[in-house]
Design brief:
Layout: E1 3-7, E2 12-13, H1 17-25, E3 30-35, H2 39-49, H3 54-61, E4 68-72, E5 75-83, E6 89-96, E7 100-105, H4 111-121, H5 129-142, H6 144-164, H7 168-200, H8 210-276, H9 281-286, H10 290-314, H11 346-349
Parallel strand pairs: 3-7
Antiparallel strand pairs: 1-2, 1-3, 4-5, 5-6, 6-7
Helix pairs in contact: 2-3, 5-8, 6-8, 7-8, 8-10
Length: 356
């Protein structure tokens, strides 16, 4: 089994069924993290060793669950989601009691090993077990902020590119980013509602204390901000998509206007040349010298072109007013991650562990 097994004193043990049984018999608080669970592990470990409810074990076998909080006799099951740096959503099932915490996920979660390393190196008193659950969920929620900051930069760059020259490739990127935001919203909103249920008293977590509730309330606040950011970015991308379509439409109108002007200029010229191209004897016998040819054959057409150009200019049809020529976007103020309002400095959110 891939994962780690850490007791409350920060000692790491080999992830084996025998070690788990010994810790359970000794009533030692521990955290067991498993990456990938097959049918054999579910039956032998989750169902037999821990004695979890069959419905909870079934959820751990079939991922793709909605974020939720289910209370059973003696334990609670939380389904929470995090995000990796490449935008991949990570589903984590947390089986929590006052004595142990079991987390199960199918995809590798790079943030959880970092939390395990901090627990191993922690000096002094260790947090209550409910605070360990908070730290796991807090670590997963923290993964959303770098992803949203990266998405913010991509939206800014895409808006600048659209103003310079809209392409079909940009439209494809917009649709991909919008689908990613929809997937993100599908898990963030239920996860926010789940913690709202917990804080309202309708959901129960064993060992919840008033001090721990403050930290979970702060976690709920972060999820609200993440949900608001997701909605804001979705509106920004809808606006960028409308800008792309409007820019393409305006450029098409400019091209059509130019072609229409050219066709309008050649329309009277075609009429004049067609009229004088008639082989009537009266007309042929009278245009027999060079001055008549220059006046009627060339001068008349030049006057028509000049008259049309003057008329188009007076009406503003030759100007770029109302069109969208290529432009250089204005310089945006460059901000780092600490200056963004939606990013929270890690030092400000590190919980102060309570004594045992």
């Amino acid at each position: 089994m891939d994962g780690h097994l850490i007791t409350v004193d920060g000692v790491e043990h080999d992830v084996t069924a025998d070690n788990v049984k010994q810790l359970l018999d000794a009533s030692t608080r521990f955290w067991l993290d498993l990456c990938g669970v097959d049918q054999e592990v579910s039956d032998s470990l989750l169902r037999d060793t821990f004695g979890f409810h069959p419905l909870a074990v079934e959820d751990a076998e079939h991922f793709g669950q909605r974020p939720k909080l289910d209370s059973y006799d003696g334990f609670a099951l939380l389904v929470v989601y995090g995000a990796s740096s490449d935008g991949q959503l990570i589903e984590v099932h947390c089986f929590y009691t006052e004595e142990y915490l079991v987390t199960i996920h199918h995809e590798a979660c790079p943030d959880l090993p970092g939390l395990a390393e901090r627990l191993r190196q922690r000096a002094g008193p260790h947090p209550d077990h409910v605070m360990l659950l908070y730290q796991v969920v807090h670590t997963l929620v923290d993964g959303y902020f770098p992803l949203l900051a990266k998405l913010d930069d991509q939206i800014d760059e895409l808006e600048d590119e659209i103003l310079q020259r809209p392409t079909e490739e940009q439209l494809g990127r917009l649709f991909d980013m919008k689908r990613s935001l929809i997937s993100l919203r599908k898990v963030v909103t239920p996860q926010r509602d789940m913690f709202a249920t917990l804080l309202s008293g309708r959901g129960v977590i064993p060992g919840m204390t008033p001090d721990a509730e403050r930290y979970f309330r702060d976690l709920y606040d972060h999820l609200i901000r993440i949900s608001d950011l997701v909605d804001s970015y979705r509106d920004l991308m809808s606006g960028a998509m409308d800008t792309h379509l409007s820019t393409v439409s305006n450029r098409l109108n400019v091209v059509m206007k130019q072609l229409t002007i050219i066709a309008t200029i050649f329309l009277p010229l075609s009429f004049v040349t067609g009229f004088f191209g008639q082989n009537f004897a009266w007309m042929v016998n009278r245009i027999t010298n060079l001055p008549a040819f220059l006046l009627a054959g060339i001068g008349l057409q030049i006057l028509i072109v000049i008259g049309l150009v003057v008329m188009f200019r007076r009406r503003g049809w030759l100007s770029t007013d109302g069109t969208v020529p290529p432009v250089t976007p204005a310089e945006r103020p460059r901000t780092n991650h600490h200056m963004r309002w939606h990013l929270i400095h890690p030092a400000e959110r590190t919980p102060t562990p309570s004594t045992e």
